[in-house]
Amino acid sequence: MKDRVWSNILVSALLLAGAQLAGAAEPIKIGSFLAVTGPASFLGDPELKTLQMYVEDINARGGVKGRKLELLHYDTGGNAKDAVSFSKRLIKNDNVDIIIGGTTTGDTMAVIPDVEKEGIPFISLAGAVEIVEPVKKWVFKTPHTDRMAVAKIYEDLRKRGLTKVALITGDGGFDKSGRQQLLDLAPQYGIAIVADESYGNKDTDMTAQLTKIRPSGAQAIVNFGLGQAPAIVTKNMKQLGIDLPLYQSHGVASKTFIDLAGEAAEGVRLPAAVLVVAEQLPGADPQKPILLDYKKRFEAKYGPVSTFGGHAYDGLMIAVAAIERAGGPDKAKVRDEIEKTRGFIGTAGVFNMSPTDHMGLSLDAFKMVEIRGGAWKIVE
Predict the structure, then answer these.
(1) H or E element: which one contains 368?
(2) Cβ distance 37 to 75 under 8 Å?
C-alpha cells in the first residue's frame, strides 16, 4: 500500500515536471500584419524578410529565455479592413504575446482600438505621429514621425533661403497626416504655402496638379507620400521642365524609389534614417557597427536594404529585450519594459522611451540626404 502511494506520488511528480518542461518549451508567439503585397509592398516586403531572418537567427542561438520565437504573419496588402481582421485573428485565435507590424498608418490606426481593448503590446512600423500622440498605453512605434520629417525638410529649406513652398500629397493616411504637419509647422519655420495639390495614390499621372503649381511662385516643391506615386511626381516634374528643388518624405527612403524615378531622382532631397548612408558615418558613430551588420546580413540574403526593413529590426530587438527583462512574455510586464527602453541603439537612431514618449527618437536621428548618381549622399 505504501509502495503504491509513493508510486502514485512519483508519477504525479513526473507528470508535473513534464508539464512544466512542456510549458517552458512553448514558443513565444510574435504576431505580425504587414503590407507585403500591394502599393506599399516595397515597405512591407523588407519588413517581413527582416523579421523572418532575425527570428531564425535568434532561435538558432537558443531563443529567448530558452524559448523559441514563433512568427505568425498575415499580408494586409495595405488594406485597413484586412488589418483589423488579421489583428483580431492574431489576438483571439493565434494567442500571440506581442504584435509587431502595421506597415502603413492606415493599417496601424485601424487596429489600435482592439489592441488597446485586449491589452496586447503593439510595436508599429508606420510613420504618422498620431500613432503615438497622444500616448496610448499598449502602442509603440519605431519609425521617425511625419512631424519630424517635416521639421527636417523645413530646416533644410530655411538653410537654403527658400520660403515659398508648394505641396503635393497623396490620399493615404500617411500622406494626409504628413500634409497636416506641413501646414501646421510652416509658420514656425517662416514657410509660406503657395500651392496645395493632391492626387490619388493609384493615379498614374500628376501633370495636371504640377501644371497648377508652376505659376504659383513656389521656390521648392514638397511631395509627402509613399508607394509608386512619389516616383511619378518626380518624373512628371522633369517631363514638364519644372526646375525647382524637390523634397520627398522618409516614406520613399529605399532603392526602389530611385529605380522607379530613374534619372529624374537626381537632386531629390529627403530626411531618412542613417541606414541608407551607413558607410558615410564617422567611425566613432555608435550606430555604425549596428547598421553595417544589419546591412551585410540583409543584402547577403535579399539584396539592397531599405530603412523600412530597419524599422522591423528595431521593433523586434526592442521586443526581445523587453521580454528578456520581463522574464518571459507576460503582456503587462513586457509592455512596461518596452516603455522603459533606454539607450537602445537601432537602425533608426538611439531609442529612449518613457511613459510620455512611445517612440523615443530625437530629431537628430534623421539625416537629410540627396540622390546623386543614383545613390544617397548626406548633405549636412
Answers:
(1) strand 366-372
(2) yes
- How many angstroms from the chain centroid is the CA of residue 125? 3
Calpha distance 85→8 (Å, rounded): 48
- Count the Cβ atoms, other than its own, within 10 Å of residue 84: 17
3-class secondary structure, 254? strand
Q: Decide if 29-145+287-362 and 147-280+366-378 have a common fold.
A: yes
Reduced to 3 states, what is the DSSP secondary structure of residue 356? coil
Radius of gyration of the chain (CA): 23
The H or E element containing residue 325 is helix 307-326
Cα 372–Cα 257–Cα 319 angle in degrees, nearest 5:
110
- pLDDT given for residue 13 in this prediction: 43
Instruction: Name the one residue in this structure whose C-alpha cell is 522633369.
Output: 238
Each residue of 228-241: pLDDT tens digit?
999 999 999 999 99
The owner of cell 527618437 is 361
Distances from the Cα of 191 to the Cαs of 83, 156, 185, 214, 291, in angstroms? 37, 12, 8, 18, 34
For 147-280+366-378, which CATH superfamily applies?
Response regulator (3.40.50.2300)
For residues 138 and 375, give the distance between their C-alpha atoms in angstroms, rounded to a whole number.
Answer: 38
**Can you tell me the mean pLDDT for 153-166?**
97
Q: Among residues of the chain, what percentage have pLDDT more than 70? A: 93
SS3 366: strand
Quote the CA–CA distance of 25 and 35 in Å, as a whole number. Answer: 31
Query: Which CATH architecture does the domain made up of 29-145+287-362 adopt?
Result: 3-Layer(aba) Sandwich (3.40)
End-to-end Cα separation, the chain, in angstroms: 85
Does residue 150 come out as left (phi exceeding 0), alpha (psi in the -120 to 50 range) or beta?
alpha
Domain borders along the chain are: 29-145+287-362, 147-280+366-378
